Prior knowledge:
This protein is an alpha/beta fold. Helix content is 37%, strand content 25%. It is globular.
Amino acid sequence: MKIALLGYGKMGRMVEAAASRQNMEVACIIDPVAGARGRMQDCDVVIDFSEPAAVIDNIAMVAAAGLAMVVGTTGWYDRIAEVRRIVDEKQIGFVYGSNFSIGVNLMFKIARYSARLFSRFPSHEPFITEAHHQFKKDAPSGTAIFLKREVEAEYNRDVPVASLRAGFIPGTHSMGFDSEADSLTITHTARSRAGFAEGAVAAARWIAGRQGFYEFSEIIDEMGDFGF
């Protein structure tokens, strides 16, 4: 199986290493700084870890080539309806995710379930916080936005999100329910980006040969068959 990488920064290099561990070849790299090598048309799946401003054009380019795609870049979700139309029109396979780690995607499931429980008790108010290093451009993070969506689905009202960008803080997301009497908080902290890379490669293997528009958390239960 051959993969093309759009973006060859830290995440792109980690995806390349993860693909090698899974006996997959990175046959094409396209990056505005690192340059380009190989032909995207020779690949089975394209993985995008580029920049938010470049994502929509990248998706249109890949879809026009008729290739399946995995997008790990965030910060473009306000145009998700447009992307879905592109994917449907070109009939490609497409997986996107705010976060490709196992822990975070299981946290999404916990968020929905815990919100369902706590929504019956007006004494407890839901909240979400997230913190990242100073170089992360989008705020709130895509993961926080997804958590917010899951919790709000049970509460049918706005749930506050607080964001922090400073220093070299690892990606940290918390969701909680607070009352005058007590507080429950669930926190996920990313120790490295390796989990994101492994998940993106597993998603690429899964989407190869398929059509349709998927969010990564929708297919996480099937990832075990692909070494995730």
